[in-house]
Design brief:
mainly alpha
Length: about 60
Amino acid sequence: MHMILDYIIAALVFPALVILWVVVENTARKFALKHPELGPPRETGGCGGCCGSDSKTSCHFPE
């Protein structure tokens, strides 16, 4: 019974966190549009923010 409860909690918590993340990002974008004097919002790229906005560029890591 304990494992089923853990599974149900995980099945509810993880999607809720993803939805919350989407809401936070959308709120930040709307705020940035209303306040252009603060500069553009930071957008994180695919691999930790080091990639360009298109998929044609690759990440370059210092050696």
